[in-house]
Amino acid sequence: MSLPAPGWTAQDIVAHLRSIGSEENRAGMARFGINTATALGVGNTDLRPLARKLKRNHERSLALWASGIREARLLAAFTGEAKKITREDCRRWAGDFDSWEVVDTVSDLFVDTPFWRDLIAEFAADEREFVRRTAFAMLAWAAVHLKREPDATFLSYLPLIEAHAGDERNFVRKAVNWALRQIGKRSMSLHAPALALAQKLAGSPDKTARWIGKDAVKELSDAKTLKRLAARKI
Questions:
Q1: How far apart are CA 209 and CA 214, in angstroms?
Q2: What is the pTM of this model?
Q3: What is the dihedral of CA 40, 41, 43, 47, to 10 degrees?
Q4: How far apart are CA 153 and CA 148, in angstroms?
Q5: DSSP letter string over 3-15?
Q6: What is the pLDDT of residues 36-70, one digit of tens each?
Q7: What is the C-alpha to C-alpha distance for residues 102 and 74, in angstroms, rounded to an integer?
């Protein structure tokens, strides 16, 4: 087979992935809580350079996703086109989520869609664990990557974080915590309200909300975090 190139089809890519996967990598993934049921054993250190060679291609990303293979789905996220993916595509992909790793990778793509805020609202209201995680993973990524988004947008999401801080499911609570921390670290103007919410949750009688709050307070109060915020001009 030729070297990876933008002209490769989904079938070419899957064949290549099968040729470079290893059981050793699959075992390593499992230790990090990654669902390896469909994994071929190719790490992100190989997938990301491969994605750069393949370039973005919306139709091919849909075919990669349809394969059901972990690595192919990650490449679908890495090489998908946010301006072409539809709401229905996003809903379908979210319905297929079965691993936190895939959720977090795809969420980074979803954040670049023009309807990302609608997706957060919809997915947060969904009772499925990985779909709800998607909402808060998207919020965390948005706080980091959407530099031109006004801080007011993220301030408006603090009530959503509070509303779901009692969801005790592991993959939801960790994403809610992640979103709160990233909002608090985005700017000095967001730090105070995010820290205030974290402190409120830390005093909650609900053990999940209390864990989310205490963990966020620890990071948002850290001297290194405060120093970075003071040096940042946002």
A1: 9
A2: 0.95
A3: -20
A4: 11
A5: PP-TT--HHHHHH
A6: 999 999 999 999 999 999 999 999 999 999 999 99
A7: 6
- Per residue in 109-148, pLDDT tens? 999 999 999 999 999 999 999 999 999 999 999 999 999 9
232 Cβ neighbours under 8 A, 6+ residues apart: 187, 188
Cα 126 versus chain centre, distance:
16
Mean pLDDT to the nearest integer, 213-223:
97
Residue ranges of alpha helices (H) inside 42-184 are 44-54, 58-66, 70-79, 87-96, 100-110, 116-125, 129-145, 151-155, 158-163, 170-184
Of 156, 154, 165, give the one whose Cα is nearest residue 216.
165
Query: What is the per-residue burial (b if ≥16 Cβ within 10 Å, else e) of 196-216?
Result: ebbeebbebeeebbbbbbbbb
